[in-house]
Amino acid sequence: MPSLTLLGLGPGNPNQLTREAWEVLSSADEVYLRTAKHPVVAAFPPGLAVHSFDSLYEQADTFEAVYDAIVARVLALAQRPEGVVYAVPGHPFVAEITGRELARRAREEGIPLRVVEGLSFLEPTFRALGRDAFPHTALVDALELAALHVPSFPPSAPALIAQIYDRTIASEVKLTLMAAYADEHEVALVHAAGTPQESVRWVPLYEMDRDPDIGLLTALYVPPRSPDASFEAFQEVVARLRAPDGCPWDRKQTHRSLRRYFLEEVHEALEAIDAEAWGHLAEELGDVLLQILLHAQIAAEAGEFTIADVLEGIHRKMVRRHPHVFGEVQVADADEVVRNWQAIKAQEEGRPRPESVLDGIPKGLPALLEAEKIQDRVIAVGFDWPDIQGVWDKLAEELQEVREAETPEAREDELGDVLFVVVNLARWLGVDAELALRKANARFRRRFAVIEEAARERGRPVEALTPGEMEAAWQRAKADEKGGAS
């Protein structure tokens, strides 16, 4: 009658075949193999007819296509009166897509299923490494990892990566890992675990793809970077601070009380960017992340939302609003990306269509940034000068109106118009207005420090300097800056 037997061949040593597997192979007339490139095949019982699907790997463009073809053929063979014995390396349900899918389809189609256990590659690999898989080793497929830009597991946990079957895939995996690990991070290549040819080689990460013995029976072990190097580990720190036996200061904080600290940390991160102090920026971004996790923890305790809600929400939003990256939409330039973003945002389920193109711009933004946001929105719908000359003319007009203003209120209004036009001018000139002003502030601080130093050299307070002495020091500071720039 129709039947399907899924049989595990073990990691590669014939002595590690289970008694049940040997009995099935000894009593069968034929066996179908996902691949005949496995050491156990040479030790099969005499007289057993062996068929393999190795030719499919050469015919198909992707592994998914190979696996789909194998599943279809095995299911067809299982419908025969004699059924089919299908054997795979290791265990049928460990790092074996075809075994898992065949079992699912057999149950759906009512085909009698027998699973013959096999020793997986995991047991001999961890024995060879002298490591325990518990408590939290990540088990990762090399093909999936190679397609990513960052590892899919936290660097605070060890990882075992299967299917490092050639040096090309090893190189691609290495590049992904380097997004989270230092080039010199020691990793282990485990070759042919559980066979007489078994070997374990510890190498720096940057050398892992140079090993000449990488092949079908190779796995990669990546020790943890450190127990502190993961989002989850830091989340636990924050939760501990907020726990009943945690920090009294952290425990009494609320969303509102943390507002000023959140703002301060963001500004400190901006200062690090302006100073191009990248090591300092890493520290300041950590402080910003602390604020985010504190808010998420407070919200979780109140039943408002969790950090998982935050991550799911922003993940899905970014994918949804970038159909030109994660979908089939074609865009001509960055301007079209912005237009698509606004259109998608307006159409999102559960969000009422805004009555104004300016809706949604936070009113609590710094004035300069708010002006930039407003201008970005109206420009996107075509409200703009045809060329930069219109902006120059408008600036001259607004400056004249400032000169002619006769009351404090009028001067305030007209000067505000000047500043708004200056922001527009910065956009036309390709200048970040916020950054330009911050740099101007920093220049003023440096130059005024020279004036203060001149006063100290004279043994006088700065306010005792004459206007001429102040101007001379100021010009000296400007000249020093130009000399340093050259």
Can you give a write-up of this model?
The protein is α/β, with parallel strands linked by helices and 486 residues long. The protein has five domains: 4-120, Tetrapyrrole methylase, N-terminal domain (Cobalt-precorrin-4 Transmethylase, domain 1); 123-222, 2-Layer Sandwich (Methyltransferase, Cobalt-precorrin-4 Transmethylase, Domain 2); 231-300, MazG-like (Helix Hairpins), CATH 1.10.287; 306-349, no CATH class; 434-485, no CATH class. 52% of the residues lie in helices and 10% in strands. The chain is built from 19 helices and ten strands. The protein has helices at residues 19-27, 54-59, 63-78, 97-109, 122-129, 142-146, 167-177, 231-242, 248-251, 259-274, 278-301, 307-320, 323-326, 334-347, 367-380, 388-404, 408-428, 433-457, 467-485, and strands spanning 4-8, 30-33, 49-52, 84-88, 113-116, 138-141, 159-162, 186-191, 199-204, 218-222. The strands form two sheets. The chain has a five-stranded parallel beta sheet, sandwiched between helices. The radius of gyration is 33 Å and the shape is elongated. The mean pLDDT is 91.
Q: What is the gist of this entry?
A:
The longest helix is centred in the last third of the chain and has 25 residues, at 433-457.
